[in-house]
Amino acid sequence: MNGMGIDWSKVRRVHLIGVAGTGMGSFAGMLKAAGYEVTGSDENVYPPMSTQLERWGIEAMQGYRAENLDRARPDVVVVGNVVRAVNPEAAAMRERGLPHVSFPEALGELFIGPRHGVVVVGTHGKTTTSALMGFVLHHAGRDPSFLVGGVTRDFDSNFRLGGGEAFVVEGDEYDTAYFDKGPKFLHYRPRTAIFTSCELDHADIYRDEAHYRSAFERFVEILPEDGYLAACSTWPSVVEIARKARCGMETYSVERPADWEARGLTLGADGARFRLVRAGRELGAVRLSVGGAHNVENALGVAAAATRLGLSFGEIAAGLEAFRGVKRRQEVRGVERGVTVIDDFAHHPTAVERTLAAIQGSYPGARLLVAFEPRSNTSRRNLHQEEYGRSFGSASRVWLLTPAPTDRVPEEERLDVARVAADVAARGVPARACGTVEEIVAEMVAEARAGDVVVAMSNGAFGGIWGRVLGGLVGVPFRGAGGPG
Asked: Three-class SS of residue 332?
């Protein structure tokens, strides 16, 4: 028995298999905050999630084994999407007939369903847009709940359980669980939605662009007639899909004509300034402290949805100005000898290009020394082989980490990192592929001079490169997380 058969009013103890994932860990915290007794297990429980779980008083058991269920004695088991059917703990759970459910289904049923679901979907910008949406509602005193995929700097957490009507969630198109191969966001009961972009990602589960787009088509179909959709018209595919919605729809864009626009946009060290325009009518001036045209675009989507939820222009503008961003999104890790070291999560070529352009706007005239680790399932494949060669135009120098071969990606499908380096160099930006993080750090430290900005991009730990570069700049060897990320 799983899913809809669970009577949550009788549930007291909940156990999460795969508790150390970003979404699962936050959901564990949310269950605890809602008064459940919560335990979890995972293969690797390490910071920052292990620290958070400890802080919330959630016992996280190391490794997957049947005995964990004896210790947890759960009424319900929540199964994370990293967990396969053959997982020994999942197998024991089925043998014992324990009620189980996927994380998205439990989240939708328990927390989003009773509230007004505000769901942010799209290939790029989901985390920042959902964090910004939750923050603007909070700043305006609406006491929202939210669950996003990154730790917001304003709350030092990626979830919040409020007393207000809105529940803001980052809607992921990735698969739900081994027993539910549909996208997670189909469980999120959206009433208001923001659709940021659409371009093939998650090549490990989507065959091609049409298959990928079909996930968003299904999402748009579940929006109720009295719902609302803000769609980013920078992407023609988004508008095409959004037109299929039964509910009211408005467009937003920084590049193309749209219902919501940013006029007179300027980018500088203190962020972005623009005049917010709706249907050709100017609403007023806005300052967004997190720089980059792509973040201004995210803010337009938030302004559209927030207006629909009843916020005034004044409330929206005040919220946008006060927002401090999300960790690992253009996050300054430190400054040594006049060199600024920035950490960013970008891994898709479009995200790489937009992030570097944004950083260039925030640090006018600075040289950008860029390190990139292709680590996600998609970025390790040759799916975007050509695009990566064009993504580093804002950089002054580029170092690419060659990932260790993995069984998950067959050899003929692997990204040719040396060729990406050659393509970047052919466009006039010196670039090279390196086998280790140590090599990159040594060269970056030797190259960096006051006024430069070092940007290291990865959706993983990248061998602790940020701390190593900062340590190297002051002549201190970095003794932290070892080896290539």
From this structure: strand
The values of phi and psi at residue 137, to 5°, are -65, -40
Structural domains in the chain, sorted by start:
3-102 (3.40.50.720), 113-322 (3.40.1190.10), 331-473 (3.90.190.20)
Q: What does the DSSP 8-state code read for residue 164?
A: S
SS (H, E, C) 84-151: CCCCHHHHHHHHCCCCEEEHHHHHHHHHHCCCEEEEEECCCCHHHHHHHHHHHHHHCCCCCEEEEEEE
- Digit-coded pLDDT (tens) for 160-188: 999 999 999 988 766 667 777 778 888 99
Q: Which residues contact 18 (CB under 8 A, 6 or more apart)?
A: 24, 40, 41, 42, 79, 80, 81, 82, 83
454: which strand partners? Answer: 341, 369
Helix, strand or coil for residue 405? coil
Q: Which residue has the tokens 């390196």?
A: 434
CA 358 – CA 382 distance, rounded (Å): 26
- In residues, how long is the chain? 485
User: Using one digit for the tens of pLDDT, what is the confidence trace for 379-394?
Assistant: 656 667 778 888 898 8
pLDDT tens per residue, range 296-322: 999 999 999 999 999 999 999 999 999
Which pLDDT belongs to residue 483? 34
CA distance 156 to 249: 33
Helix axes 293-308, 126-139, angle to 10 degrees: 50
Note whether 49 and 39 are within 8 A (CB): no
Measured between alpha carbons, how far is 124 from 234 in angstroms, rounded to an integer? 12
The reported pLDDT for the residue numbered 484 is 34
Cis peptide before 48 (omega within 30 of 0): yes
Asked if pLDDT for residue 337 goes beyond 50, the answer is yes
Helix (H) or strand (E) holding 314: helix 313-322
**pLDDT for 100-131, tens place per residue?**
999 999 999 999 999 999 999 998 888 889 98
Q: For the chain, how far is it from start to end, CA to CA, in angstroms? A: 39
